[in-house]
Amino acid sequence: MARTLAMFTDTSLCIGCRACQVACKQWNELGMEVPQWTGTYQNQVHFTDQTFRLVRFIEEPKPTGELAWLLMSDVCKHCAQAGCLEACPTGAIYRTQYGTVDINQDTCNGCRYCVSSCPFGVVAFNESTGTAKKCTFCNDRIHNGLGPACAKACPTESIQFGFRDELVPKAQKRVETLKGMGFKEAQLYGADSNGFLGGLNAFFLLLSKPGTYALPDAPKLPQRNVVADSLLSIGSAVLVGLGALLAFRERGQGGGDA
Amino acid sequence: MLKTPDWEMMIVWYFFLGGIAGGAYFTAAIADNFGGARDRAVAKVGYLLSLPLTLACGILLIADLGAPLRFLNMLGAFKFWNPMSIGAWGLGVFGLFSFVSSVLCFSASEQMVGLRRKLSLVGSIFGFFLAAYTGVLLSNTTLPFWGDSRLMGALFLASGASTGMAAISLIMFLSGTTAGEGWGKVKKADRYSMLIELVLLAVFLGLLGSAARPITSGQFAPLFWGGLVGVGLVIPLVLDFVGQRMKAVAAIAAVLVLVGGFVLRYVVLMSVQA
After folding, report:
1. ipTM over 0.85 threshold
2. Residue B125's pLDDT is what?
3. Given pLDDT bands bounded at 50, 70 and 90, which one contains residue A255?
4. Where are the alpha helices (DSSP H) in chain B?
5. Helix (H/G/I), strand (E/B), else coil: A117
6. Using 50, 70 and 90 to split pLDDT, how confident is the model at B274?
């Protein structure tokens, strides 16, 4: 496997211009959508089959009574342990040699198990193709030496693209700088490869708690209980089977000779 | 902000019919192997019922896909830790057992009956699987309630058993083959299954606590408490104990059990996706 590629989204540098959102739409030929009123400049409310990059506009009340205006360009996290990839029964969702997660549109058959298995609600179903859609990390571009369209278009370097092992130390340094400037809640989300989901290959620097950005505090792999749930089902099968055995067994003679 | 998979009526029907198919098959296998010669009527009804239901299951599953023509892609991978993957394989293998067992129902030769009995012991493993895996599939998603419920598979299995047995007894009642001991035995087995299901349901709700709210309160609560707990479990149990000698009452109880099995799949699937 080649060195893992990553995107580091530093929300402290985002100016909400949405160049990333537009670049993503253009490059990936994503269609127009009916706009959704969110009460802010944000549009859409959440990822769709036509929106892979989404700038979130968040107003957070400060203790002083003022509002903090938080901006965040959100994207598929390309988890090291990806729920969608584990859920895919056809093998259409795969990990590329760069560590990103992509959906092969030619083999996906639209069962939608991945949709219910993404801890971030990223994967969306497209009615017209009948397949699941999400950010591809611009798979076509990165295989041709170009960065993802969103990172390329970002005018403030809020979205940085590079090797994961180079981006993480850079991000850690940035958190320290911001803390020194008085941003007490500055924190990385998904940078730790020993943390949740084995780390996110699209990780973030946040200026507030993850919940403020509609991110789960500690997302978990949905498949973690398959063994326990299966064993409990086997237990139920034994009980039900014994019940039926008790009802059907023939007293005084062996199993059903004619 | 999570997304739901839009598994709606076709999947409700699939979960319901798959439960009956699996339940009817393993009931048939147990009757065939451990019951007397007179219980073979039960076994035959069970095997022959499982076949068309399994066929319907396959059609429903394929029709619900976004790209139905690519359904065979399911068999392009085998992920043993993935309920959707082994579910597709399991349904296929169960279909084969169901088919062979059904064909063997038409032979009176002792050799063939012996083969059918041995085969059904293996096939019943897949029957249990088919009834339970749909629950494990739901309990391994990120969605609240589904992903929180550790006993969904166990509960679906017990429900598959009770509805499978109810379907067998109902068919026997309608076709007038209730004279032998077999009918009474399948009704008895059904009562045991319902009791197990009722206990499992209580533990299921207890373990979930407030996470069970999508079905225990709100718009789906009347259907859950009335349709599943009341009409689907408590009333048929009471009817069965009170009207043990009256076959028509027992047949009504079987219909109610089937209604309850459908309601269970309906409220579990639709409440989270409403």
Report:
1. yes
2. 98
3. very low
4. 9-34, 40-64, 83-104, 110-139, 152-174, 181-208, 213-216, 221-222, 235-242, 247-273
5. helix
6. confident
The label of the residue with tokens 């729920």 reads A83
The parent domain of residue B66 ranges over 9-273
Domain of A200, CATH number, reads 3.30.70.20
Secondary structure (3-state) at B203: helix
Percent of chain B with pLDDT over 70: 100
Q: How many domains does chain A have?
A: 1
Q: Does residue A179 register a pLDDT over 90?
A: yes
Alpha-carbon gap, residue A232 to A225, rounded angstroms: 11
Q: Give domain status of residue B1, yes or no.
A: no
pTM: 0.95
B151 in contact with A, Cβ within 8 Å: yes
* Contact residues, chain A, for B188 at CB < 8 Å: 247
Q: How far is A196 from chain B (nearest CA, A)?
A: 14
The domain total for chain B is: 1
Which CATH number does the domain housing residue B192 bear? Answer: 1.20.1630.10
Range of the domain at A193: 5-220
What residue has token string 């068919």? B171
Average pLDDT over all residues of chain B: 96
Q: Tell me whether residues A247 and B153 touch, CB distance under 8 A.
A: no
